[in-house]
Design a protein that fits this description.
about 140 residues, alpha+beta, Thiol Ester Dehydrase, Chain A, five-stranded antiparallel beta sheet, about 25% helix, elongated
Amino acid sequence: MNEFVWPVRVYYEDTDSGGVVYYANYLKFMERARTEWLRSLGFEQDVLLNEQGLLFVVRSLQLDYLRPGRFNDWLKVHSHLLERGRASLAFAQTVRRGEQTLLCQAEVKVVCLNAQTFRPCPIPKLILAEITGDC
C-alpha cells in the first residue's frame, strides 16, 4: 500500500480547555483514517461484521506526541502499511499540520477477529488481494 492520507478538521469538541487537541483524540483521528483506507479499498466494516462475522481491532500501539494540534487546524492523517500477517496488519501513522509539522506518530497493530469468539482469524483473501494489488 502506498500512503493513504485522510484530512481532519479540529473541532472545538476535539480540544481541551486550552484549545489544544485532547491527547486521546489523535487515536480517533487515526482510527477514522484506517476506516477510510479500508473503505477506499471497497470494504465497509459493518458489512464485514454482518456478512462475514469479522472485526478489525487494535491489538497494540506505540504513540509519540511531538507538537500540539489546535482548534480549527486542518490536519492530515498519513497511514502506511508496514507489515501484513495472516491475521494482522501493522500501520505507521502520523498526524501533520501542513506538510512539514509533525504532531504525533504511531505504530498501530490491528488484528482480524471472529466477532463471535473474539479470537484471531485470517484476513479474507479478497481484502489481502486489494491491499497488495493482486486482484
